[in-house]
Structures are given as structure tokens and as C-alpha cells.
Design a protein that fits this description.
208 residues; alpha/beta; Rossmann fold; two-stranded antiparallel sheet; 7 helices; globular
């Protein structure tokens, strides 16, 4: 198997994710907005949110920040972290691999990750969700978007102008992993349909 992290990191640095996926999607609406509102209404005022694989900081972190939440974003693309700091100056952004961050236990009210977890080797997912659980306060929440393909390794030579790689489970396995990591699932829904360009599995859950 190729080095997924190397491909993903270089892909986001060399490609133009912003033009391909964000230029016309800077505001949340519809499906995503509904789930994010469901999350936000359960969080305390000025609650702490950690975004794993934050990318450009928009639209998600910008939305959280404008609602008064204390936002920390993690990403290993220098280009994206630089843009995120400009896009959301009121948030804190850290340049690092999000699977290697270690915050104190019970630091955050919520941990979110959008279109990022499927860029790490899937065998690391169980450990990641266990660490996320530890970082959350009692009754803390997660909102994550995950893959649907069930492939240990997927590769595309030209994705947003550069090579890109993925590693995913089937939704049933993701639910098992999340429950096994100590979460109670509140919502588990699909974005799109099989064959669509955007076909993902979203999970909203609470620390059990």
C-alpha cells in the first residue's frame, strides 16, 4: 500500500481543493446545516470545539466561531492552515497531523471532523475514536463525515488537480467502531446516494 499520508498531504498542497469544492460552498445550507444545528443546540454557550482536519476553516469553523464557540482546528496542510487563520481569525489553528494531537482529558465539548477521517489508514480509526472520547468532557458530542466505499486503499490520479488517496470502511463497521469507542449514536445518515460525487456517511453521537 502506498503512503496515504504522503499522498494526501501533497495532494492538498499541490491541488486546488478550494476551487474544486469550496468556492461556491462558503455558506452552510441544507443537509450539513441541519446536522450542525443539531450539534450546536446541545452544546454549552462558548463551548470548546475541536475540528480534526479543518482545511480552510470555512464554512464549518467560521459558522461555529460566529455562534460564539471556542474553536481549535488541526490540519497538516500548511497552505490550508494559513488560509484558515485568515478566514477565521477568531479561532485557533494548529499545523499538525490530527491523529497525533494529545490534549488533556475532558478538554472539549465537541469534536468534529468533515471529509478528513477517510484520508487516514482505516486501521487507525478505532484508536482515533478512543482518543477522541478521552478528549471529550462528560456527555461530549462528535459530528463526523465518513466514507462509504469499504476499501482499505483507494487512489485517484487527478483529484482537484493532484493525486489523492482514501481508506474507508462500510457504514455498518463505522457504527460498530464508534459504539465500541464509547459513544451512543444519535443520528447516522447518508449524504447523497451511491454513484453520486458526494456520497458520505455522517454520524452525530454522544459520549456514553
Amino acid at each position: 500500500m502506498e503512503d496515504i499520508r504522503k499522498i494526501v498531504k501533497e495532494g492538498y498542497e499541490k491541488g486546488n481543493y478550494e476551487r474544486a469544492f469550496r468556492i461556491n460552498k462558503m455558506k452552510l445550507k441544507g443537509f450539513e446545516l441541519s446536522l450542525i444545528k443539531s450539534l450546536c443546540k446541545t452544546l454549552p454557550r462558548k463551548g470548546k470545539i475541536l475540528d480534526l482536519g479543518c482545511g480552510l476553516g470555512v464554512p464549518y469553523d467560521k459558522y461555529f466561531a460566529t455562534k460564539g464557540f471556542n474553536v481549535t482546528g488541526i490540519d497538516f496542510s500548511k497552505k490550508h492552515i494559513s488560509k484558515a487563520r485568515k478566514n477565521v481569525p477568531e479561532a485557533r489553528f494548529i499545523y499538525k497531523d490530527f491523529t497525533k494531537v494529545n490534549f488533556k482529558a475532558a478538554t472539549f465539548d465537541a469534536v468534529v471532523s468533515f471529509y478528513a477521517i477517510f484520508h487516514i489508514p482505516r486501521k487507525e480509526n478505532r484508536g482515533l475514536f478512543l482518543r477522541i472520547n478521552k478528549m471529550l468532557k462528560p456527555n461530549g458530542k462528535i459530528l463526523v463525515s465518513l466514507g462509504t466505499g469499504g476499501e482499505a486503499y483507494g487512489f485517484e490520479k487527478n483529484w482537484a488537480g493532484a493525486p489523492m488517496a482514501w481508506s474507508t470502511y462500510k457504514p455498518k463497521e463505522y457504527k460498530s467502531i464508534i459504539r465500541g469507542a464509547g459513544f451512543k449514536i444519535a443520528k447516522a445518515v447518508f449524504e447523497g446516494k451511491p454513484g453520486d460525487e458526494e456520497y458520505h456517511f455522517w454520524v452525530l453521537a454522544k459520549k456514553d
